[in-house]
Amino acid sequence: MHCPFCRHADSRVVDSRTSDDGASIRRRRQCPACNRRFTTIETASLSVVKRSGVTEPFSREKIVTGVRKACQGRPVNEDDLAVLAQKVEESLRAGGSAELDAYEIGLAILGPLRELDEVAYLRFASVYQAFDSLEDFETAINSLRAEREERAASFGEADARTADDEPSGDVVPDQV
């Protein structure tokens, strides 16, 4: 690591700490030539292999830009998009691979986008999965409906269980 002050070709690590929940390492360094200290932040790089075979660095901003188009006119704000991009990056990093196909990134976007906004999900999926017909849309919509009904049914069961388990409030006198 070159010293940013005197451009000496080497530096010594004085202290290391993890940051960003373990996603990066913050290193405090000292130059042996000028004795000045500076900080570096190291992260594991992710590379994206595009369909054309070109490799480029992973970018959260590209995810936000792509999803923003699907969210036009929807009640989704920039913070929601930033959180979605973070979730996608975390899930991709959890996979443990340093090189990812662009297709894998699209798949990783679909889940969090589905949770965020169903209409935006359909828009993104229609382009990403190359919907060719109304039947493709119908299949996707039916899948969303089934998932929503399943969640509602499991939520209703949870409400029923807690209502049965709770005391009724009636006071029963002790038997003497």
Automatic annotation (TrEMBL):
This is Transcriptional repressor NrdR. The gene is nrdR. Negatively regulates transcription of bacterial ribonucleotide reductase nrd genes and operons by binding to NrdR-boxes. InterPro entries: ATP-cone_dom, NrdR-like_N, RNR_NrdR-like. Keywords: ATP-binding, DNA-binding, Metal-binding, Nucleotide-binding, Repressor, Transcription, Transcription regulation, Zinc, Zinc-finger. Residues 152-164 have a biased composition (Basic and acidic residues). Binds 1 zinc ion. It comes from Oerskovia turbata. GO terms for molecular function: ATP binding; DNA binding; zinc ion binding. Its cofactor is Zn(2+). A zinc finger (unnamed) spans 3-34. One of its GO terms (biological process) is negative regulation of DNA-templated transcription. Belongs to the NrdR family.
